[in-house]
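Chapter review: from sequence to fold.
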Amino acid sequence: VKNKVNMQQTKLSVIMNTLKSSNFPRLWFISPLIRYSHHAVKNSLLAKRDHSTYGCTNSCWNCEFKHDCKLFCPSCEIIQCGECASKSLNFFELLQLRQTFDISVSSLKEYYIKLQTRLHPDKFVKKSSREQSYSTVHSAVINEAHKVLSDPLKRGLYLLELNGYVVDERSVNDNDFISSIFALNFQVEECEDVDELKIMLSNIDADIKHDIEDTNIAFTNNDFESAKRELIKMRYRRNLKQLIEDKIMKLT
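The token string follows.
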């Protein structure tokens, strides 16, 4: 057993020294950061609508009341195309939240439920095909908005995008942090003790909590570079957390 431990420590030492080399690709051992693009998501959802048949005219298709692309007609309350609103409003505006990292999750959930109560396709099964089409698209966009804003990591990446910042593999430049994450990955792979894995999981959860707090401070100060660094750390720790949870499930 002692020889096995020594071999593992030697192997880890060699790999970490190699990892610190400036010529070594740093991200070979972990899933890359993926840029979240809300524009691509919304455009793909909106593309499902038949614009040639149901184009936006800035007036109600049912009663011809003029309005500025509301989701529902202010006059007859019939669901509208809302193409302009869907394209121009970001997810914060769509769910009536301040454009900030520190949001009220309860307010987000409350307004999301309120919108879906009116827009969900189940509410339009007996309506016209046009109304069903509008409902499907609006509901999908609102679901995506809720999914993004309710998750701290996705919300942070989304905020960076709104402010013109891109997070990808080239954004990672902290060799010490990457080395520590790799070492933990190695420990998880080698560990067969569920209790030890649970301790590691608890520590990772605490680190992620600190990442969220530091990210909030960075966004509050409009320090987008620091926010980007914290979100990168959060993403790597999220991946590590998933690895630990999978290993615990495998052993139990």
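Two observations follow directly from the output. The chain has two domains: 38-150, 169-251. Confidence is low (pLDDT under 50) at residues 18-36, 43-53.
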